[in-house]
Amino acid sequence: MLLIPIRSFRVFGSEIIDLHSFFPTPCFMTSKEILLELKAMGSDSIKKVLVNHGAREPFYGVKVADLKTIQKKVKVNHALAMELYDSGISDAMYLAGLIADDEKMTKKDLQHWAKNAYWYMLSEYTVPWVASGSKHGHELALEWIASKEENIAATGWVTYSCLLSRTQDADLDLDEIKSMVDRIEKKIHSAPNRVRHTMNSFIISVGGYIKPLSPYAIAASKRIGKVSVNMGNTACKVPFGPEYIEKMKKRGSLEKKKNTVKC
Question: What is the arithmetic mean of pLDDT over 17-31?
C-alpha cells in the first residue's frame, strides 16, 4: 500500500490548514553555511558596541535578534552547536548555546566551553545557560566558583544563579545557598571585577527566586551596599540588590520558576 504524506487538510469546508504551520520542519544547515550567513549579517556599528562591552576578535557583530532567526530555522541541533562553538567566532559561539541540547552536554564538553569562553557574553550567558540545563550544572557551578580565573569563577556564579531561577525551592540545598550568601558578603568587594558583578547577581537571584531565603538575601544585600564594577565604555549600571529584588518580586518571580534561561 502506498502511503501519501498529508501536507494539509480542510476543516468542515473552511480554509485549508497547512500542517507545516503547526509542525515546522527544522532547516538543515551546515556550520560553514551558518558562518557565511553570520558574516553577511554582521554590522560595523554592532561590532563597535560589542567592543565597548569587552568583545574581541574574531566576531562579526551580529545582533542577538538575528541570531535567533537562525535558531528558529535550525531548532535544537547539538552536533551543529558543538561545531559552531569550536569555530572560535563569538557570534557563532553564542548561537551554539541557543541551539545546543543541554542534556547531551558531558562534563568534559562543558569544561571545554567554559575554558574557551573568552568574554562575558559567552562566560556569563552562553555557558551558564547550557550548564544549568545539564545534569552537571550544580557540580560544575561549585567547581568553577572555586577557580582563581576571573572568567571561570564568574561562569560558576551565573550557573548557580540560573539553577536558582529554574529549580523548585524544595529541590535546592538551602543551607548551601545561605552559606554562599554569607561568603559573598565577606568577599564581594575584594573579588575580581566580573566576579563582583556575578556575585551581586547571585544575591539578587536568591532574593528574587528563593522564597524562604528572600529576606535573608535582602538583608545581606543591604549590608553589602552598592557594588562597584568596571562596565567598560558603556552606560550599563550595576543593579542595587534590594531595589532589584523588590522589582522581581512584584513581577511574581517568587511564585513561578523559569522554564528556560536562554534568551
Answer: 63
Q: Which residue has the cell 480542510?
A: 10
Average pLDDT over residues 234-248: 96
Grid cell, residue 239, equals: 543593579
Give the chain's length: 263
How many Å apart are CA 257 and CA 79, to the nearest integer?
Answer: 29
Beta strand pairing call for 16-18 and 8-10: antiparallel
The pTM score is 0.89
**What's the pLDDT band for 19 if we cut at 50, 70, 90?**
very low
Do 231 and 237 form a contact (C-beta atoms < 8 A)? yes
Q: What are phi and psi of 179, to 5 degrees?
A: -70, -30
Phi, psi of 17 (to 5 degrees): -100, 125
Angle of helix 241-250 relative to helix 193-209, nearest 10 degrees?
40
Are residues 241 and 224 in contact, defined by beta-carbon separation less than 8 angstroms? yes
Nearest to 202 by CA among 222, 215, 188: 188
Q: Is 124 exposed, middle or buried (0-12, 13-18, 19+ CB in 10 A)?
A: buried
Distance of CA 66 to the CA centre of its chain: 17
